[in-house]
Amino acid sequence: QVHVVESGGGLVQPGGSLRLSCEVSGKTLDYYHIGWFRQAPGNEREGVACISTYDGATEYDDSVRGRFTASGDNDWNMVYLQMNNLKPEDTAVYYCAAGSTWYASLLESDFDSWGQGTQVTVSS
Asked: CA geometry: angle at 23 spanning 43 and 111, to 5°?
């Protein structure tokens, strides 16, 4: 079972940047995806980004495309979500998750292992 742990959340002003980290352990597959999700109070959890650990290909939700960038280190033990030009509406608990689908996905049901979440607050 793949385990993931998020970190890096915090408070940032609008227009600022923040980088989230996802530590990945227990990897037994050469190919899997790491997804980033977020959930604000009263909202459904939504997929933000997904990255393939096979080739680094990414997928983004329209709401963050051009502002957020997912990446990983050489062995995919660490995956990152660089968030630039943050907006108040980006405020949410952010989660990373691991899934074994062969395709990129922003759907919760395609991910099996979830982190505990890290709070991101964008406020002036």
From this structure: 45
| Unique residue bearing structure tokens 């395709």 | 103
Beta-carbon contacts of residue 42 (< 8 Å; ≥ 6 apart) = none
Largest Cα–Cα distance of the chain, in whole Å? Answer: 43
Which three-class secondary structure string do you get for the chain? CCEEEEECCEEECCCCCEEEEEEEECCCCCCCEEEEEEECCCCCCEEEEEEECCCCCEEECCCCCCCEEEEECCCCCEEEEEECCCCHHHCEEEEEEEECCCCCCCCHHHCCEECCCEEEEECC
* Predicted confidence (pLDDT) per residue in 97-123, tens digit: 999 888 889 999 999 999 999 999 999
Amino acid, single-letter form, for residue 85:
N
30 pLDDT higher than 60: no
* Higher-scoring residue by pLDDT: 54, 89: 89
Mean pLDDT of 8-21: 98
48 close to 61: Cβ distance less than 8 angstroms: yes
> Average pLDDT for residues 54-78, to the nearest whole number?
94
